[in-house]
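Input sequence (358 aa), recorded before submission:
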Amino acid sequence: MTTAPDPRTPPAPADNAATASPTASPATSPAPSPVASGRRLTVVADQTPDSPALAGCNSSTPSTDVPGEASRARKKAAAKAGADIRGEVLLTLAQLRLATPHQLKALLLPHQQDTDHVRRALRNLLAESPALAGRTHRAQQSYWYCTPAGLAEAAASGELAPTTGRATGKRIAASKTGLREHGLALVDTVIAFHQAEVADHADWRVEVPHLTPAGNLVPDAVALLADGSSAFVEIDRTMSYARLLAKLERYDAYRGARASGRGSAARAPRSHWQETYAGPSLERPFPSLLFVFAPAPRRAAPDTREATFHDRARPNWRITVATTTLHRLTRDGADRPVWRVVGHGEDRRALTALPKPR
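Predicted structure, token format:
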């Protein structure tokens, strides 16, 4: 006698799961073009998809499309960091002309252990059409700079100090004559000042021309210090002592250079440095001149060059001239007693303890 099937027992489902097609993932939207209307340093999320989350160690635990709280937080933080610093990376390259990913990390994400976020932002800038950043490679190191399109976008943001003749840094990055090493030494100097909170990395201007009666003066950089005063910064690697001393003379000549405008009936015309660096009430002295001696192949050691410079430079009481080496500056910090003042012996002082010019 045949037993009828129990009507309460549901039929076995068809085995369609093995043949079902996976759901197609949505296509990633391309980054917007730099010529998009109204765009100014737009934050663009990284276009590289995240790696899938690993399944748990227990094989009986089914995988899920929803990551764990910690994984989700890490991914969110990584994407946000890579996107948020995109504009800062572009501005920093436009300002300092070139930098390595490690230097950019030291300035923008000092507490990060690696350069992943910085490299993500750099790739984002490179992938634009036209590219906003470029790079060159040498000795397993990449050197990044702004392209003309990147400079235009950085300038349009209004975040950069107005500077005529701003260069892209491509020629410096590709140079084989020491220009790249000189530029990198300047960035290391900026990092030392920034980490010591002596001068923010955004408060530097590179190679700003100053007209003087003794010829054109182009400091390697001008830094706005935390106390509101300014300082001229010169990086020396290979310059002859004669040229270094000649540059001192141009700084002395600049101290007396008149501003281009005319004075009013109530105020006599002031010198250019007073109009530019002294402030409205002339309470600040002439900016200090800081020399940083950096290493170079086939040249005397920076300590030796610094000592020889002091032997040859004559004290000029109208200008405060102080020196250090890049090694001492980056090792001890810009706020520590690393500065030796011309005409004041071999003792070293902190930047805030430098004598004021007369």
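Checked by second reader. The two ends are 121 Å apart (CA to CA).
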